[in-house]
Amino acid sequence: MLDVRSHLKSLERSKLSRNNPNRPRVFSISGREWDLLDEVFAPVYSPSTSIALDLLGLAESNPEAAPSSFLEIGCGSGVIAVQAALSNRTTVAMDINRNAVENTRMNAERHGVTDRLTVLHSDLFDALDEDARFDRIFWSSNYVLAPADYSYGSVHERAYMDAGYRTHRRYLEQAVHHLTDTGSALLHFCERGNAAELARIAEQCGRELRVRSRRTVLEGTDLIEHALLEVVPVVSRRTRDDNRDRDSGQLARV
To answer: Measured between alpha carbons, how far is 85 from 74 in angstroms, rounded to an integer?
Structure first.
């Protein structure tokens, strides 16, 4: 399992995807065709986008199950964001890769959802207004852990690995601050990542990671488990005691 977690293996996967002479300009997924620009993560070379669609229940548009607002971090070619918008969600999609931002806009236009899909160039939540709130926030993360001092050779590599898990730390810290009262912050993670390190960072951030669902898929010769995690703020013992005392007081007055 250590080999699949190697950032060197992910570097090779990025290079093969980026430089493949047969890299398509248009690809098919979820029964639709999608434009694909250079330097953008290509779902045709990795099952992660299809898995994310399945984990989110977006493999087919399903308006009845849709929360009213959806934010995707790291939108890539825009498949997930567009599928969310097709399910009548008011959707915002963001990416640090400018080509990905343009790619998502192209696919929003291709599938007729520009009226309810906003695309922003952003490093995580930086481009959002402080008071922006969503019913669901989702990031299919670059789950492979790279050394903290790694210097990215291209923006494409950022889709494959996270140096020192700095981006994961920021997501765990910040995502919950952009939720509605009943919203959920979700993270797509898998065995290519370092789950123990992610859990350590979550604890440092005062967050709990709850598994919403799992899928195991064959990736080349490797069986890899993927999981949809929910990021939940940990309620401190003092807060729990304060809430208990408040509730007890209210009951005493009834």
So the answer is: 16
For 16-65, write each residue's pLDDT tens digit. 999 999 999 999 999 999 999 999 999 999 999 999 999 999 877 555 45
CATH of the domain at 169: 3.40.50.150
pTM over 0.85: yes
pLDDT 10s digits, 178-198: 999 999 999 999 999 999 999
Distance (Å, whole) CA 175 – CA 72: 11
Spatial contact of 193 and 143, defined as CB atoms under 8 Å apart: yes
Residue 134 burial by Cβ neighbours in a 10 Å radius (0-12, 13-18, 19+): buried
**pLDDT tens-digit profile of 73-113?**
999 999 999 999 998 889 999 999 999 999 999 999 999 99
* Cα(160)–Cα(104) distance, integer angstroms: 18
| Domain range for 60 | 3-253
Q: What angle do CA 26, 32, 35 make, to 5 degrees?
A: 25
Instruction: Report the number of distinct structural domains present in the chain.
Output: 1
The owner of tokens 């898998």 is: 190
> Do 230 and 185 contact (CB within 8 A), yes or no?
yes
